[in-house]
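Predict the 3D structure for this chain.
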Amino acid sequence: MAILEVKDVNKAFGGLKALNAVNLSVEEGTVHAIIGPNGAGKSTLLNCFVGRLIPDTGSVIFNGRSLLGIKPHEINQTGVARVFQTPEIFTDLSILENVMIPAFAKVDGSFRINAWKTVGTRGEVRDMAEKVLEEVGLQEKRDIIASSLSRGDKRRLEMAMCLVQDPKLLLLDEPTAGMSRADTNNTVDLLQRVGTHITKIVIEHDMHVVFSLADHISVLAQGTVIAGGKPEDIKGNPKVQEAYLGGRTHECRNGETGRNGSGAVRGRLFLLPGAAELLRRELYRSGRQLRCEAGRDPGIAGPERRRQDVDAAYHRAHGRSATA
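Done. Predicted structure below.
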């Protein structure tokens, strides 16, 4: 069952068409990744989901209700929460106080806070906040001022501020942007562990994150959805390789005759962002001879051999055997 339906959404800024007839269906209880190059329209689309932008045409239906024309805080109250590219937290407050603020909204509804009750008397709110902080691993730091946190912990805090609202749909806009690899891995582990009942939409450039989390992937290019499917389908989609995941032309000398009869065969090398370096390391360790055209990345002889080595790099990135 689809919890979010996006139909024929268009959005232009002057003469620039940021979104062009976007259609998207997000199944309840899944992790749906939206990927694409910079400027593809990913954040614009997300802003249409939360009321920060209104599409020129089309519809956005969440849980059977149109989100068009609804204010962002009202959309939040329907069960949609968002993690921003840059953590949006209250830097002058403690970690616990940061999480208690959205918890108050959850208890009182529509961001109404009962002025006749002090924070100290709202034991249920504190309990909610501390439970979520324990889930994200920040319980022991609950009294620390938020401004002193690392970027990874700020992201965890923002995640806790969303989770305490018990949303039906969680939108994550590049949740690992600017993180070290260790913090990125910790964030992936966190997203896999918490909120398993919550539908998640993830916008992300790090393909390790995408393939670790996503049940379904939609690929956006120049404001249009060019492909959609399971991760294994997207990995082998030639449109995706060309538009986003790094399909590149390489010259190979393997005795085959190219279409021009010159003996040069041009093949498409599929390199996931981040996997290219893994592939280069594998080639270096194996002692293979690399041959490349001027201005292009190195490939290896034979289209099938290249495909096998790229697959091996992909699987190593996931800690699996290439034959698994």
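DSSP finds eleven helices and twelve strands in the chain.
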